[in-house]
Amino acid sequence: GEDVEQSLFLSVREGDSSVINCTYTDSSSTYLYWYKQEPGAGLQLLTYIFSNMDMKQDQRLTVLLNKKDKHLSLRIADTQTGDSAIYFCAESIAGTYKYIFGTGTRLKVLA
Amino acid sequence: GAVVSQHPSWVICKSGTSVKIECRSLDFQATTMFWYRQFPKQSLMLMATSNEGSKATYEQGVEKDKFLINHASLTLSTLTVTSAHPEDSSFYICSATGTGVTDTQYFGPGTRLTVL
């Protein structure tokens, strides 16, 4: 089936690093994405990685991609209370513009 | 860049009425728009894909006569929930992708529909 799995919940202390994991299914995905959703809001694109890359860094965000294991992770350095939200990974379906979304990880940052 | 808006942000309607939700790409031409539905504490469920000037493609299990989608221009798509019932209450989110923005989807802020 087409399931993109994420752990449901993560709690970290302010200033620590957060690592959110995602296991995807389609090895032919061209791009993989990370989105952030705050309560009652739409999805904000955080970053994306092309499938032929292993790592991408963008300020506090680091994305790691392990194609062999179909594993994607998002590391947030120096996590702040404003980072509290739900984080969704998504994989693009090859040949279409459609996405398969992960189940979402709720990140709670403790002051 | 790549800003998508939705209107209204929330709407309450009576059972049996129809509700129209607009999705606009503000600074790019959206050749493809998507409509999602999100239940509380759940992920997004794709309802349909619409391409400008053609009929929408609905996902399995989504009633095309109930959820009417129109993508008449490169910057506007509308979702009309016809004869709404309480079970249609949900958070509806649109996204858009287009020329010059790879195949990344840019999302609107969502519309919360409550049917009484």
Parts with pLDDT < 50 across at least 5 consecutive residues of chain A: none
Query: Hey, which two chains have the biggest interface?
Result: A-B, 20 and 23 residues
What value does the Rg of chain B take, in angstroms?
Answer: 13 Å
Structural class of chain A: mainly beta
Low-confidence stretches of chain B: none
Task: Profile the largest sheet of chain A.
Answer: 6 strands, mixed
Largest sheet of chain B: 7 strands, mixed
Mean pLDDT over all positions of chain A: 92
Compute the number of strand runs of chain B: 11
Rg on CA atoms of chain A, Å:
13 Å
Number of helices of chain A: 0
Alpha-carbon distance between the two ends of chain A: 39 Å
What fraction of the residues of chain A are assigned to beta strands by DSSP? over 45%
Q: Counting H and I runs of at least 4 residues, what is the number of helices of chain B?
A: 0
Distance from first to last alpha carbon of chain B:
37 Å
Tell me, rounded to a whole number, the average pLDDT of chain B.
91
- Indicate the overall shape of chain A: globular
Total strands of chain A: the figure is 11
Q: Report strand % of chain B.
A: over 45%
Helix content of chain B: under 10%
Quaternary state of this entry equals heterodimer
